[in-house]
Amino acid sequence: MKDLLSVADLTGDDVKAIINEAIELKNDGWLNILDRKVLALVFEKPSLRTRVSFEVAMMQLGGHSIYLSPSEVGLGKRESVPDVARVLCRYADVITARTFSHQTLELLAQYADVPVINALSDAEHPCQALADLLTIYEKKGDLRKLTLAYIGDGNNVANSLLLAAALTGMNFHIANPEGYSIQDKYWEIARDFSIESGSEFFSTSKPIEASRGADVLYTDVWTSMGQEAESELRKSVFDGYQINESLLAAARPDAIIMHPLPAHHGEEVAVGVIDSPQSVVFDQAENRMHVQKAILARMLGGLEYPLANSTGLRYR
Fold first, then answer.
1. Among 74, 132, 219, 273, which is least packed, fewest CB within 10 Å?
2. Contacts of residue 69, Cβ cutoff 8 Å, sequence gap at least 6
3. How far is residue 41's CA from residue 55's CA, in Å, rounded to a whole number?
């Protein structure tokens, strides 16, 4: 795999391999398998988890990273995206980009001779979805035939989760207001994947219906970065699309609660929910680093080296 721009760039076997490798790398801790490798982080949006998890992941694998802020690069403004790509691939072995537009990522990948990783765009958030799968697997022991209920906006995270579920045989339920659903093209790709995996999908405008019997309750902010002008409208539209006690009562008793963070307590999640025993939100955040270690090692050849303690659970 040269680039990871979308979950659709992967196969079901790829996802299984990444989860297995992430488990092994998580068990092994610090390794020197990417010595003399350099990661360039090109960000148009601010970040806590994405930046830190990638930087520490590269450090733990023995490599180095360089962070480039929006003001330093100015993708497509101060300098054209193709020129940035052609310059960075002379310095770095892999580029991770966090962009407003998915087209920017596609241009970077088109003109760069090194792998490009999507660290979030308006279309998808594949690294988040893969970390979510790892977290669900750790908590549930399998992914097949589990049901993930997503409550809220059909945004980039929802797109990637739908595709990830379809690749792995996990059922996907979503509840969102009319006009805020996942785009048809993602449903079409997911249906193609589900022919082999057996995933089932369900879409509704009623959160309680999506939550019934769910193994995972998942939500995200109502207003993403770049949508700040819509904040008040979205608060009104999404009123009622909150993970709270009523949705937890509809889900399975052992259901887990997930959120990619940052969270707005009292909006998409009731106050106290993220601190409850059923929440695995901070395990999700940690697993970003471990999944990204697996992706980086896979892209840069580090997995040709023997891992020290291959004792983790195996996802088959």
1. 74
2. 43
3. 8
End-to-end Cα separation, the chain, in angstroms: 20
Segment 128-173, tens digit of pLDDT? 999 999 999 999 999 999 999 999 999 999 999 999 999 999 999 9
The full DSSP string for the chain is ---BSSGGGS-HHHHHHHHHHHHHHHHH-S--SSTT-EEEEEESS--SHHHHHHHHHHHHTT-EEEEE-HHHH-BTTTB-HHHHHHHHHHH-SEEEEE-S-HHHHHHHHHH-SS-EEES--SS--HHHHHHHHHHHHHHHS--TT-EEEEES---HHHHHHHHHHHHHT-EEEEE--TT-SPPHHHHHHHHHHHHHH---EEEES-HHHHHTT-SEEEE--SS-TT-GGGHHHHHHHTTT--B-HHHHHHS-TT-EEE--S---BTTTB-TTSTTSTTB-HHHHHHHHHHHHHHHHHHHTTGGGSPPS---S----
Matching fold, domains 7-124+285-304 and 126-280: yes
- In Å, the largest CA–CA distance within the chain is 54
DSSP characters over 17-47: HHHHHHHHHHHH-S--SSTT-EEEEEESS--
CATH 3.40.50.2300 fits 7-124+285-304, yes or no: no
pLDDT score recorded for residue 303: 66
The single-letter code of the amino acid at 180 is Y
Domain range list for the chain: 7-124+285-304, 126-280
Closest CA to 51 of 106, 96, 99: 96
User: Does residue 262 have a cis bond before it (omega within 30 degrees)?
Assistant: yes
Q: Is the pLDDT of residue 214 over 80?
A: yes
**Per-residue pLDDT, 307:** 46
Mention the CATH class of domain 126-280. Answer: alpha beta
3-class SS of residue 52? helix
How far, in Å, CA of 137 to CA of 294, rounded? 16
